[in-house]
Specification:
Elements lengths: L1 E5 L3 H12 L3 E5 L3 H8 L10 H11 L2 E4 L10 E4 L15 H13 L8 E5 L7 H10 L5 E5 L9 H6 L4 E5 L3 H14 L1 H5 L4 E5 H32 L3 H9 L20 H14 L7 H24 L8 E5 L14 H11 L3 E5 L4 H7 L9 H5 L4 E4 L4 H4 L3 H5 L6 E4 L6 H6 L3 E3 L8
Parallel strand pairs: 1-2, 1-4, 2-3, 4-5, 5-6, 7-8, 9-10, 9-11, 11-12, 12-13
The chain binds uridine-5'-diphosphate-glucuronic acid.
Length: about 450
Amino acid sequence: MRISVIGCGYLGAVHAACMAELGHDVVGLDVDEDKIAKLAAGVAPFHEPGFDAVLKRGVESGRLGFTTDPAAIADAEIHFIAVGTPQLSGRLGADMSYVAQAVRTIIEHAEPGTERPVLVAGKSTVPVGTAQLISDEFDGSGKNLVLAWNPEFLREGYAVKDTLHPDRIVYGLPDDVAKGEAAREVLNQCYATMLEAETPLVVANYPTAELVKVAANSFLATKISFINAMADLCDATGGDVTRLAEAIGYDDRIGPKFLQAGIGFGGGCLPKDIRAFMARAGELGVDEALTFLREVDTINLRRRDHAVRLAEEVVGGSLSGKKIAVLGITFKPDTDDLRDSPALDIASKLWAAGADLAIVDPAAGDKLRERRPDLRVPETLEEAVTDADAVMILTQWRDFVDLDPTSIRDLVAAPNIIDGRNVLDPKRWSDAGWNYYGMGRGVSI
Ligand code: UGA
């Protein structure tokens, strides 16, 4: 099939490359010339395991192209909207201007459907109610465009795998039966390989499909804040939240995933999605339904202050002039994404409190140097930990999880290790002569 993908950020670029991998002819459109030049040359503009290979394969096969020219989308049979919906500055709601621009581009440049309607599939995370508004706009355009809402659930770090082998596919279809059937047929053709592999398919109306996405992210955020609240209880009582999570996770109804306590969630999705969801609930007059998400957000942000306070106590009460080595600055491992990174927020707070910081990260070092020239970002972990009064693991990159405690023991000024992600073995580190501090592991000071 001929496919266009509008918006070539994380979501769009990966989606475009994966659609080409499935055998479709794909053009990705974005206004960012640098990004498009890189993608068109088969070079990934961000760190994502496995993406380079599918991108290169797609570009070399001639099935995958990228452009800034909107006219190039004209003959696509499906247009995917994959632009960002970031948090509005100073407000809880989502910035919908990129979606509005994508809709205008499609109306202006898509060839009208003649034999069958041209499908537009929305992938961006939007406030519930958006799809109907876009659909109405298409109806008034005279171009025979039909909209489906087809949310995406990929995780950074697993984006290619999640796109090619999703847990489920969701179609949000128009109420009009004929249009709905037409949309379903085109989507079935697009996702034929995945459907043949018996990927569960959920077909619903627009609002349900829009809600599925934010409900899923809200549930994940709630799970994380729940376990972080339990971490506070463990700290107060001498419990160990990692054992607690393991024990409750054996219950199938709860499950073991997303119960890792630590410095909390960040990234370009969970934090802004729960805030936009609350804002939308307010507009719909059902804000009470989601007041619990405010607490989820508050618990999450409190983790960052907790980590700063812990560091302060570990180094003797004041951070001023204390050398702190921060290991990991991205919002999670296997990405170079710094958006709403708890690690970066904590580092900024430590720096503001006068700490002498040294930060290392396997993927985001250069980006951090560019963005925050005020922060010290040495090339090696050894340099970063030398003479440190405390070492803090804030992102659980494999290199840090596997770190041999004896290998850096003699480099530091004081053997204090703060495990912001609860990924180290406390006994192993204690046996090697370190003072170990986790997040809710019953070793309060
Ligand atoms: C999230 C969802 O997991 C995806 O399903 C969704 O498609 C995506 O948002 C999106 O809306 O586009 P992502 O932001 O890549 O994906 O990251 P997650 O793996 O969900 O992690 C989010 C944050 O939670 C990270 O900072 C991570 O360190 C933290 N986390 C995760 C915890 O603190 N504890 C856990 O147990 C799990």
